[in-house]
Structure formats: C-alpha cells, structure tokens
Amino acid sequence: MKIRVGHLYPEYLNIYADRGNIAVLAGRARARGHELEVVSLGMGDPVPPGGFDLFYVGGGQDREQALVATDLVAKGPALVEAAGGGAAFLAVCGGYQLLGRFYRDRAGVELPGIGLLPLHTVAGERRMIGDVLLDCDWAGRTLAGFENHAGRTFLDDGAEALGRVISGFGNDGASGFEGCRRGRIYGTYLHGPLLPRNPWLADRLLADALAHRTGETVELAPLDDGLEQEAHRVAAARARERGGRE
Ligand code: GLN
C-alpha cells in the first residue's frame, strides 16, 4: 500500500531534525511492505481533496512561523476538510502552535492558526527547555522527548492532552499536560526528534494513515524495537533526573 504524506513547509519548519520523524515513518512502513510517498507542501502549493493520508508539520522559530502563517491559513479549509475525512496529522512545536487558533508572540503580534486543534498559544518571558517524559494513559505508553519553546499553549475546556507531564514543562509549565490529541490529529512540543525513541507513536500514525487509506482498522505487525527501546529508556531516564517540572 502507498501511504501518501503531505509534509508542510519542510523548507521553513524543520529545525528539530523533523526529517528524522519522516525517516522513521518510512522505515517502519517499509518493514510492513508499505511505501511512504512524501510530497512537500510549500508556499502556494494546493492541498488536493483526499490526496493525503497523513500530514506532517515540524518546528520553527517565530520568524519562520510568521513566514508561513498566511499561506497556512489559505490552506486551512483544505486541511480542515482532510482532517474531517479522517486524514492523520502530526504537528510538532511551531507547527503545533499554528494548528491552534493563534500564536501571540512577545511583541503581542498575533499569527493566525487554522483552528484544527482546540487551543491557543501565547509567548512567555522564559523559554521552557529540557528533556520531557509524558504518560499517555489513552495509549498505556510513555513518550520521551525534548522541548524548547517560549509559547505557553492553553487547551480549551474539554480538550484532550497528548499526555500528562511526568518530567518537564509541557504545554504551559503549569497545567501538568502536554500536547493535544483530537481523533487522528496529534500536536506536541516534543522533538529531538520524537519518533525514533517512541516507535509506538510512529506505528499509531501509520495505522491511522492506513485506516484513512483503506477505510478499515489496520493492525501492524510488531517489529524488533530493541534499539528504539534503549533510546527511549535513556531519554526517559534523563527526563526523570530533571525531575518535577523544572
Ligand atoms: N514560537 C515558538 C516558541 O514558542 C517556536 C517553537 C519552536 O518550534 N521552537 O518558542
């Protein structure tokens, strides 16, 4: 099966080895006999209806976010339609912020988002940097990663977080939650990159993308994840050493 991935703004939002996440998706798809076809969606590129099973948008600083925001808003209706049709999304850091309603920077300038996730983000004084460990009880798994953001993300009432913070700051350094999850849409501050050390999330995204492609629930055969588990263990231990939320 061909899994069609739309990679939004790889030229602009790519500061956290986001391409590594795509490489993991491609490798794990290949190991199950599927092929990942990655199409770059840059400025002015159209988003054809039903054309993609998975969208990926990575991280960038405020400057890069400002450069893509207007174009992203233009693509907004097509992306909202794709999500409504069951396409999966992974949005990291700066991309995560722009899937919400808006991102307000330190100067008070507001970048519009596309409102795909029920949240908004406001930049704070201090950057929140370091290793993070999350408990994702909806999946019965943990996620380990690294965060580096000044934005504080506030989820709407009733919105579901991606995980509960065991160590690190998370969305806003105060709520005890990180990321946001809505159906097949996953937004998070975690990078480092994220998927090499959390292969279960990569498989979850592939299963979601295949479900969009086939209209059926898909079970992926397990892989030998010895190295990945070791990477997860090391990253999780580093986050635990950091302790609490500081
Ligand atoms: N606007 C960002 C911030 O909150 C960018 C996050 C990122 O992708 N580094 O710092």
What is the tally of helical segments? 5
Report the portion of residues in β strands: 25-35%
The run of helices and strands is EHEEHEHEEEEEEEEHH
Mean pLDDT: 95
Strand line-up of the largest beta sheet: 2-1-3-4-12-11
The end-to-end distance, rounded to whole angstroms, is 44 Å
Query: What small ligands are held by the chains?
Result: glutamine
Structural class: alpha/beta
Global outline:
globular
Approximately how much helix is present in the residues? 25-40%
Runs with pLDDT <50, length 5+?
none
In angstroms, what is the radius of gyration? 17 Å
- Total DSSP E strands: 12
Largest sheet: 6 strands, mixed
Structural features, described:
The structure is a single chain. With 246 residues, this protein is α/β, with parallel strands linked by helices. The protein has five helices and twelve strands. The chain has helices at residues 18-30, 62-84, 94-99, 199-214, 226-242, and strands at residues 2-8, 35-41, 54-57, 88-92, 102-104, 110-112, 119-136, 141-155, 163-167, 177-178, 180-182, 185-188. The chain has a six-stranded mixed β-sheet. Helix 1 packs across helix 4. The longest helix is centred in the N-terminal third of the chain and has 23 residues, at 62-84. The protein is globular, with a radius of gyration of 17 Å. The mean pLDDT is 95. Bound molecules: glutamine.
